[in-house]
Amino acid sequence: MEKICVMGLGYIGLPTASMLANNGYDVVGIDVNDKVIEKLKNGSPHIEEPDLKGIFISAMDSGKLKVAKKLEKSDVFIISVPTPLNKENEADLSYVESASIEISKFIEKGNLVILESTSPPNTTENLVGGIILENSGLRPGKDYLLSFCPERVLPGKIIYELVNNSRIIGGINKESASRAEKIYSSFVKGKIYLTDLKTAEFVKLAENTYRDVNLAFSNELSLICSEYDINVRDVIKFANMHPRVDILNPGPGVGGHCIPIDPWFILQNIKMRDTLIEKCRKVNKEMPVMVARKIIELIWDKSNPKVTIFGASYKENISDTRESPALAIIEELLNRKIEVSVYDPLAENFKYKLSGLEDSLGKSDILVLLVGHNIYRDIDLKRAAKLMRTKIIFDTRNFFRREEIIGLGFQYFSI
Ligand code: SAJ
């Protein structure tokens, strides 16, 4: 069996490395972060994700998965490092660059390099291929094989989707795509489609941008419906009964480390201006501001108002708080000197202080639900009503049952 080095042990790299090891490959997972390596060596993943711990531990126990800080010689190198957005709304490819420089030191003729990190079109050939050529003299497609294979898995369902989703693989030539296909087919049950590098890079961006555009449409509908005093949820429910309509749910904004970022990668190297994609991004970015304004409107007559926020993570039932709409909403409220208390037992690495349930509700003037975690279903709303100073619920996810909330004496508002 070939040896594979997976560079970057984050949300995608760690499950992928574990999966490959469980399917017979000798895998070395590389991460530059000492704390991550230490935790993993002690047998516990640093990421919360259903079923991840089990597959990671079995990979480590089998002896097929090692974790290390330094890269080593290998047959295959998979780059799975972050590609965040920089201040100019362009891809920060510095981690891909560093990984490519490292690979240049170990790569040999006949090896395969796969980029998995979401990147603007041409990154695999120009940046990864360019750096390796410059530093090792090896030519992509001639001396070694070069592919792009984007991850497509949904946080919260990563392990299931890693196995069952289809994959798209781009190669600098057919041999590169086919060799990468052989590796992924060791654990992927979904279909695997082969194409060229640029197309595969673009497909990944198009998928997430499609979702961003659909969400912008849905969020804009919610604003328009509120002008007409029509319930947008009813509109979407009925419209989606049409066989060719599939509108997503409006919410307090679009968070996470992918959907708010990838549309910018599509736009960064093009001449076209005034695109639909950019407008949609702006609509979604504006949603938290609209939500904050609505909160302020609902509590404007209170002296020293207190706002309770349920949901710091960027979506339901996960701990990830990156680009969470809660961040922008809380910032708006704090800028107006409004007291904010956040209750989210799942959230990790949140910028603001998190409170206990009773503390967060005590003497509050409004409960704003930003994310519909299942654990919020167990909350005793009668007790919440007693603790709060003013009984208002602003439900941005259609999470609660309106009649029940009103029955408990609350005023109920939704998006
Ligand atoms: N959201 C809504 N309403 C909806 C659906 C989502 O407001 O009806 C919001 C969520 O609350 C969240 C944001 O959109 O704030 C994004 O959530 P998501 O569930 O749509 O997507 P992510 O970011 O968790 O994962 C996406 C997925 N992409 C697609 O579905 C096209 C996933 O498959 C990708 O692998 C992932 O991005 C990624 O890593 O690129």
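^ SAJ complex. Residues 118, 151-155, 207-208, 211, 215, 248-249, 251, 254-256, 258-259, 314-315 surround SAJ (CB under 6 Å). The mean pLDDT is 97.
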